[in-house]
């Protein structure tokens, strides 16, 4: 009886891990259902955290926004031509970078 209970308890974390992996896969497969190519590429970049998908985006400003978002750097924001979008990108990526630096400083 004890071995059965122990096996069940050991199986639960494995089942939870498989379920979580399935959710990640479902999220990327949902991206492939998006018909607009730029939106699909952005979705894949976000889900997979891979800026290589940003290069598929045809709109230059959206591509640079994607690169800044995925890389977590401000440098791509400066290439955005539309002023409001550039300011938003710089503010968003500056905040995330500051939060990261604050976390690193607190750890040291």
What's the helix and strand layout?
Blueprint: H1 2-32, H2 37-48, H3 60-71, H4 83-107
Helix pairs in contact: 1-2, 2-3, 3-4
Can you tell me about this structure?
With 108 residues, the chain is mainly α. 74% of the residues lie in helices and 0% in strands. The protein starts with a helix and ends with a helix. Mean pLDDT is 76; it is low at 7-26 and 98-108.
Q: Low-confidence segments, ≥5 residues, pLDDT <50? A: 7-26, 98-108
- Give the termini separation: 49 Å
Described by the principal axes of the CA atoms, the overall outline is: globular
Specify Rg, calculated over alpha carbons: 20 Å
Quick one: how many beta strands?
A: 0
Largest sheet: none
Share of helix among residues? over 70%
What pattern of helices and strands is seen along the backbone? HHHH
- Average pLDDT score: 76
Beta percentage is: under 5%
- By secondary-structure content and strand pairing, the structural class works out as mainly alpha
Number of helices: 4
Structure summary:
The protein is an all-alpha fold and 108 residues long. The protein is 74% helix and 0% strand.
Task: Give short descriptive properties of this protein.
108 residues; mainly alpha; 4 helices; 74% helix; 0% strand
């Amino acid at each position: 009886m004890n071995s059965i209970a122990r096996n069940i308890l050991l199986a639960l974390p494995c089942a939870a891990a498989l379920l979580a992996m399935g959710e990640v896969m479902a999220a990327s497969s949902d991206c492939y259902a998006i018909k607009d190519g730029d939106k699909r590429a952005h979705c894949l970049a976000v889900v997979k955290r891979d800026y290589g998908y940003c290069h598929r985006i045809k709109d230059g400003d959206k591509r640079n926004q994607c690169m800044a978002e995925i890389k977590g750097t401000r440098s791509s924001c400066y290439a955005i031509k539309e002023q409001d979008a550039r300011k938003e990108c710089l503010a968003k990526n500056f905040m995330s970078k500051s939060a990261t630096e604050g976390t690193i400083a607190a750890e040291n």
